[in-house]
Amino acid sequence: MDSKSEKLKRNVKKDILSNGLTIITEEIPYVESISINMGVRCGSRHEAPGLEGMAHLVEHMLFKGTKSIPSPSKISELIEISGGSLNAATDYETTVYWCRVLSEKAEESLQLLFQLITEPLLRPVDLELERKVIIEEINSVNDFPNSRADVLLDELMWPGTSLGRDIAGTIETVSNLSHESLVRFIKEKYNSNSVVISAAGNLNHNEVIDIVGPMSETLNVSSDNIFNKINYTSNKPTFIREDRVTEQAHISIGFPGTSRDNEARYALDLLIAILGEGMSSRLFQEIREKRGLAYDIGAGTSHHADTGVVNIYAAVDSKKYNDAVHVISEEVQKLKTNTHIEELDKVKSLYKGRMKLNMENTRSVATWNCNQLLHGSASGFQSPEEFIEKISQVDLENIRNAASQYLSEEDMNVAVVGPVNPHDDPYQI
User: How many independent structural domains does the chain possess?
Assistant: First the structure.
């Protein structure tokens, strides 16, 4: 099959086949393993109304057997028998199937991953089984108050949108997903233009092409999958409470963040690391160590194609959740004027060290390279070294600007799950 080749950073090679499928490899000759990611630009944001949960259901169904390997246990055994691992995950914008195996298992592992999408059995009896499994998965999320708080926060921040609902769908939508719609969804969304094969380890780039190329010819050739973009609009601070009998009140606080392509993301990531990453962070020291308001507290960021989110979470004494929310809010606002070079240098070192350590693992390398191409960044392929350089360039002015732009009190959304007093709200809403 014809292809368009490109040599990227480090020992990375990329080919786009004539049907649009992308193959990227990074040769690491001194290891004995190979990690393979098969990523698809298809997540919960690509679901039409009435199909909520379909992307996640597809992920489950593809492991139920192929024409070549009809037994689900045999699929797992093929990878696990020599110590390898196999799994998949669905998020808002992508689904990724991956394995890590010994190098001598590369060919059959590549074939297996591709068979999952090119020759799935999709038996109706398996659909009914997996439907029940996913419904129990949804129930289990609702059983955990911390997870439930996150779900409520998403609904609060992104009402009526694809980001405002669980990736797995709802019990109602999953119950109504038909076999016909399942088959059609795979045919439409799992097309050659939307698939990326990323492999890292002791491998040969051309051999990967030779294996994957002929198998990809059975895929439907179509344009890239698209979804509706979201514009966040804030009116005032919002609050939602769900009374539940638990030992603690579980708090999830959200601010709208940046998209992946926004240059401000680097400053925002570092800023939130200062706020809530690890035991030396501001929130941990102020909320837990000094005031004893929470046992578990932290903060992080997520970036999507069009927007993002800053999330702060805490588990507190139910009688003190109001105090905790106010103290958290105070600590957030301090970031706008009171940040120090020592803090910035510390989190820069954290990010740089973490990236370097991750890139010694074939799984992390394959995932990084896959994500760079799956998400179609406007800036193109970014190497780990280029990411580190972006982090290095962030200064205190960038940090304070990010705090002022993205951490407005008017954009603060709070979800609480636990035995809370209905008259004791952080906001009068």
Answer: 2
